[in-house]
Amino acid sequence: MMFCLSFSSISSNPLRVCVVGSGPAGFYTAEKMLKAHQQAQVDIIDRLPTPFGLVRSGVAPDHPETKIVINQFSRVAQQERCSFLGNVNLGSSISLSELRELYHVVVLAYGAESDRSLGIPGENLKGVHSAREFVWWYNGHPDGQNLEPDLKSTDTAVILGQGNVALDVARILLRPTTELATTDIASHALATLEESSIRVVYLVGRRGPAQAACTAKELREILGIHNVDIFIQESDLLLTPVDEEELKSNRIQRRVHELLSKAARSKPKHTGLNQRELHFVFFRKPNSFQESKERADHVSGVHFEKTVLQGVSSGKQIAIGSGEFEDIKCGMVLKSIGYKSVPVDGLPFDHKRGIVPNDRGRVLSDPSNPLVPENGLYVCGWLKRGPTGIIGTNLYCAEETVSSISEDLEKGRLIPSSALPKPGREGLLQLLHDRNVRTVSFSDWEKIDSEEKRLGSSRNKPREKLATRDELYKTIS
Ligand SMILES: Cc1cc2nc3c(=O)[nH]c(=O)nc-3n(C[C@H](O)[C@H](O)[C@H](O)COP(=O)(O)OP(=O)(O)OC[C@H]3O[C@@H](n4cnc5c(N)ncnc54)[C@H](O)[C@@H]3O)c2cc1C
Ligand SMILES: NC(=O)c1ccc[n+]([C@@H]2O[C@H](COP(=O)([O-])OP(=O)(O)OC[C@H]3O[C@@H](n4cnc5c(N)ncnc54)[C@H](OP(=O)(O)O)[C@@H]3O)[C@@H](O)[C@H]2O)c1
Q1: Which of 80, 83, 201, 467 is the least crowded, having the fewest Cβ atoms under 10 Å away?
Q2: Is the CB of 382 under 6 A from ligand 1?
Q3: What range(s) does the FAD/NAD(P)-binding domain occupy (predicted)?
């Protein structure tokens, strides 16, 4: 309590907080910290010149309403006690130990920027991409521009996984480009999609329709695309008693199963022109990717093993190979089996779960000893929980992390290092200046934002994303 008073009464010694990552977890953490601690000064750093994480580079272009949360995040960044510093990469611009020297509290909220891998033969063939790369590409992420997926040499794509990301990428491949043209989709992606010859998409799950990871609203949307015929084997929809037990306690999955059952019974729409097919395939796990005989190093299909489900614990069934195999021929594969966080030097990391070990947001170097967390180091969002949950989930996650910080401040757990004033933002800016790191402020971002909106308005789009670092910097210089 004494320590808490020393922060709140000495304005020259603010509580210096650095949040790494400007996605939902980072912004919700900043918002909660500023509210809970009137003497806190919060700096949000991001490796990109643009803020908002997956709200900008993940959420699908045809879901503009989801991106409205950006207004709330902008109001946080505009507060006097908050600042955004883009183009600051934890790990290359600055190390974790340096950041901890500069700030009393460091909250890591840098998400999950890699992919789970299948570890099966052929995974590196051309034409096999992760959904993350594909999403970055169509959303104008500066690191996604070079993907250049070949959508012209094939009429068939296979998507592995049946979560909401899988539905997003399937929808982008199938939706008429006239509908995408008025979204904030990157212009390079729209041009490629306009020339796409992909007509058939397989969405393949290793388990059954009762276990599909997508949610009902997103499923209803893709089932409703007007030029797409849906194919589902009715026999796959039969429920075992264990499935029925699972569905009883899960309203969303029950709804998903109902929607799939209805779609399986529906007649093809036959709208004629530009007709496309979406096949939901269940109980198949990828065994290997096949190489094309005509195009060396290029994928030509996926070799699947049929599966059966086996209960491992109450309410949880896993897919087991049945020894029967089947191929699906295709010219492109998108692996949508989940994102993965990556560690930085000096950070405790659970490689198996792909998260930072933590006790309600407090980073633990020894997970078996939650009573001794890392001093002043916290975690939030996908890096804390793993790569699941919608934007709103990160609000609760941030509340938990901030309440751990508040508790540690109140109980004096942060006293030894943080009773001393810390350099915070000034120290960070000096260090970055010495290293020739060109930082991007929130007002710089506002210039980018205006320019993107201006470019978009002439094309009937909400914005035209500047998709390279060069274009972004040109706008603010
Ligand atoms: C394709 C896709 C679509 C989605 N669509 C929806 C949707 O429609 N609705 C919904 O509610 N949820 C959606 N979600 C889920 C939602 O986006 C996540 O729950 C949320 O973004 C996770 O927040 P986060 O802050 O942990 O990570 P992120 O949003 O990924 O933010 C992490 C930030 O950290 C930065 N960063 C990474 N590494 C470093 C580093 N070394 N140094 C500095 N900064 C770094 C990144 O640039 C990024 O800005 C979607 C997810 C995906 C993948
Ligand atoms: N509109 C929205 O609200 C929206 C949009 C996009 C994303 N999101 C959210 O973002 C989060 C991440 O979505 P996500 O789709 O990446 O993840 P997800 O929901 O966890 O789905 C992952 C999918 O990959 C499958 N999978 C995992 N490992 C596999 C393997 N080795 N082989 C074959 N299949 C495998 C899973 O099958 P099993 O079930 O068998 O493991 C599941 O079908 C989710 O919480 C999602 O709801 C929301």
Answers
A1: 80
A2: yes
A3: 16-179
In a domain, 370, yes or no: yes
38 CA distance to ligand 1 middle (Å): 27
**What's 253's domain CATH number?**
3.50.50.60
Residue 199 lies in a domain: yes
Question: Taking a C-beta distance cutoff of 8 angstroms, is the pair 44, 27 a contact?
Answer: yes
pLDDT over 70 percentage in the chain: 96
> Could you tell me if 170 and 309 lie in one domain?
yes
Kindly give the distance from the C-alpha atom of residue 96 to the centroid of ligand 1, in angstroms, as a whole number: 20
Q: Which residues are annotated as a binding site for NADP(+)?
A: 162-165, 206-207, 218, 389
**Confidence (pTM):** 0.96
Same domain, 213 and 351: no
Instruction: Identify whether residues 64 and 101 lie together within a single domain.
Output: yes
Question: Total structural domains in the chain?
Answer: 2
Give pLDDT tens digits for 67-87.
Answer: 999 999 999 999 999 999 999
User: Which CATH number goes with the domain that contains 386?
Assistant: 3.40.50.720
Return the residue whose CA atom lies nearest to atom 10 of ligand 1: 390
Is 375 found in the same domain as 241?
A: no
Q: Which ligand is nearest to the CA of 282?
A: 2
CA of 161 to the centre of ligand 2 (A): 6
Q: Tell me, what's the pLDDT at 193? A: 98
Gap from CA of 252 to ligand 2 centroid (Å): 14
Among 391, 401, 445, say which to mutate for ligand 1: greatest number of ligand atoms within 8 Å of CB.
Answer: 391
pLDDT tens for residues 422-444?
Answer: 999 999 999 999 999 999 999 99
Annotated binding site: 25, 54, 90, 162-165, 206-207, 218, 382, 389-391
Q: Which residue has its alpha carbon closest to ligand 1 atom 27?
A: 111
Q: In this structure, is residue 58 part of a structural domain?
A: yes
Q: Determine the structural domain holding residue 240 and report its residue range.
A: 117-339
Same domain for 89 and 138, yes or no, is no
